[in-house]
Amino acid sequence: MTDNKALTNKIDFAVIISVNRANPNGDPLNGNRPRQTYDGFGEISDVCLKRKVRNRLQDMGESIFVQSDDNRAPGDEFRSLNDRFKAALGRWKKDVEDKKIESADTRNNAPKEWMDVRAFGQVFAFKGNKDKDADAVSIGIRGPVTIQSAFSIEPITPDSLQITKSVNLETEKNPDKKSGDTMGMKHRVDKGIYVTYGAINTQLASKTGFSDDDANKIKLALQTLFVNDVSSARPEGSMEVVKVIWWQHKSPSGQYSSAKVHRTLMDIVKADGTYDKLDTLNDLKPEELDPLEGEALQRLCK
Hints:
This is Type I-C CRISPR-associated protein Cas7/Csd2. It comes from Desulfosarcina alkanivorans. InterPro entries: Cas7_Csh2/Csh2, CRISPR-assoc_prot_Cas7/Csd2. It holds the Pfam family Cas_Cas7. The chain is α+β, with helices and mostly antiparallel strands. It has a domain at 11-62 and 143-300. Helix content is 26%, strand content 26%. It has eight helices and twelve strands. The protein has helices at residues 46-59, 81-97, 106-113, 115-120, 202-208, 212-223, 258-266, 294-300; strands spanning 11-22, 26-27, 33-34, 41-44, 121-126, 137-142, 145-147, 150-155, 159-164, 183-200, 239-248, 287-289. The strands form three sheets. Strands 1, 4, 7, 8, 9, 10, 11 and 12 form an eight-stranded antiparallel beta sheet that branches. The radius of gyration is 22 Å and the shape is globular.
């Protein structure tokens, strides 16, 4: 478990993302075509972005509660959030008996146990044993880190490609004849620049114990967002972090609202991912970060 000192000052951030012949986030309600708004702008959902951040934090050695089933930590045998939570709850109760911790309270222990709960919060809503109603739990924890969906700078026009599989999924009466299930579709965005915005709130950080050190880990995760994120829809090199903009305020509540801070970037990002000089808002100077590479990336991925 981690016992952190809460975040000192408010943080705002933005990430500029380049897409090159990839499907950045498929829409399951639209045949897995790249997500689009009604105006035709591309979208990457906040849930998709948080999944990538969680994966990066896990690669960095952090304990993660919401693990994807195909990217579970070594030695983690749990196939559901319920099983993972109940195992942790059992450990907490034993630690109370051994007087290692004062209580098995979920609100107190879950953020210490898991980095993503400390950052994003989590709803623990699990059914109890039929014979033991006390096993049921319904607890909501609000996290300090919020991330908006990423939207493209310009409208996108997804390309669709019909593909043919080399073999039937099931044996046909005539094996030489192709069945209907050998046909499929792939979709992609040829080129696009997406931007997402987020913030880290000190008031909620004090509730979960999210610290300045945790904020730095989020920054590193954003700088390496697409490391180990390869798939058929997103081939290696097709998704890239162009720039991470990091605003560290000088007070817990911040000098300016997040909306005003984010607007300093909104109107100046160009279609190629570049932008003119950022407005510093008098006393709030942004940190402009390139994606990690070289020895820095090697150390992070050990």
